[in-house]
Write a structure and sequence with these properties.
This protein has helices at residues 3-19, 57-74, 77-82, 87-105, 108-113, 126-151. By secondary structure, the chain is mainly alpha-helical. The radius of gyration is 32 Å and the shape is elongated.
Length: 172
């Protein structure tokens, strides 16, 4: 291969790798998008609830096992005396709820309901579209004063006067 051809191939490869950005594959829906569907507590959710079907099998099995351990803990004398679970059990419940929420958001059906959750249009994310409209609005509002001056013909002195006009622009 000639040196020029090799150099051009290397440049093309570097531009292709560094310059072309591809969006990341969606592997879960942001929890804010599915917040309305998430239960307040997965532990108290009935097994026949439709949301249980969206959990992956290991998470569902862990949830069932945690429910059984909670049932066993409620039968102990310590639970009867305190009337509440241990702090470790409450932490397990919090972790299970978090795990169930993440499993639900990563389900293929849930992802398929909105394949581009972060895009407002074809090319811009919600934040990029917001910033774009904010910048355009700011520029437009700053131009209002100039437009108002042009409307009232106050942006420059009249050139129709037969008398010499003093330059008021501050420039000699």
């Amino acid at each position: 291969m000639r040196p020029l051809t090799l150099l051009s191939c290397l440049c093309f490869a570097a531009i292709t790798v560094a310059g072309c950005q591809t969006p990341n594959q969606v592997n879960s829906v942001p929890l804010a998008k599915v917040q309305k569907d998430l239960p307040a507590d997965w532990i108290t959710l009935k097994p026949e609830d439709w949301r249980m079907a969206y959990l992956d099998a290991p998470t569902r099995q862990s949830l069932i096992a945690l429910r059984k351990s909670l049932e066993a803990e409620r039968a102990t004398q310590a639970f009867e005396a305190n009337g509440s679970y241990s702090e470790a059990t409450y932490e397990s419940i919090r972790q299970m709820n978090l795990s169930c929420n993440q499993s639900y958001a990563a389900n293929a059906v849930v992802i398929g309901e909105d394949l581009s959750p972060e895009l407002a249009g074809a090319a811009l994310s919600v934040n990029e579209a917001y910033m774009n409209s904010t910048v355009v609005g700011d520029v437009n509002l700053r131009q209002v004063q100039d437009d108002w001056a042009r409307l009232w013909l106050m942006n420059k002195p009249s050139s129709l006067s037969p008398y010499p006009i003093v330059n008021t622009g501050g420039r000699p």
